[in-house]
Amino acid sequence: MILPIVAYGSPILRRVAVDITPDYPNLTQLIADMWETMYASNGVGLAAPQINRSIRIFTVDSEQIIENLDEEERQEYEGDEGIKETFINAHIVEFAGDEWPYNEGCLSIPKVREDVMRPETVTIEYVNEKFEPQRKTFGGITARVIQHEYDHIEGKLFIDYLSPLKRKLLKGKLLDISNGKVRMDYRMTYPKS
Fold this sequence. Notes:
This is Peptide deformylase. Pfam families: Pep_deformylase. It contains five helices and seven strands; from the N terminus they run βαββααβββααβ. The chain is of the alpha+beta class. It has one domain (5-189): Peptide deformylase (Peptide Deformylase, Alpha-Beta Complex). Strands 2-3-4-5-6 form a five-stranded antiparallel sheet. A two-stranded parallel sheet has the order 1-7. A hairpin with a 2-residue loop joins strand 4 and strand 5. The chain is globular. The two termini are 27 Å apart.
């Protein structure tokens, strides 16, 4: 089932999400709904707070980004084949490498894209859908998407990394989003006025 995406301004996007246990109600269906919602919204990642659940789950499909790169870009991200994975109860262990810019967007902040600096690699501990412990290091675009989605379960948004001047310049657009004046071709829920 395709779920509505929570729009900027909703308090849930600013909460630190909580870990869950394997007996979380309807977990398998929730994860399936997250994948369906992400693809229906043309996203490459989706975190549970974006579908109004303050729990530590996010999905990432960076394979689709890698597949759409031209040859020159592929060389730039050599070694990053992309992933299609669900992260549950994720906690970042370490960031490494130089920070580099990339133009990010967010399903909860439609029609806003800005360059964000993030470290090259991230090491993260989490459990998969079978609740098997994982500890992996990711680089390139995949690391970027993971860090963006991880921020959602920490109550952060990509705009938090922008300079005060950039944020001030975006204030009108952000207000329009939270007031429901920005419409997308996917379902959204807006903060209550």
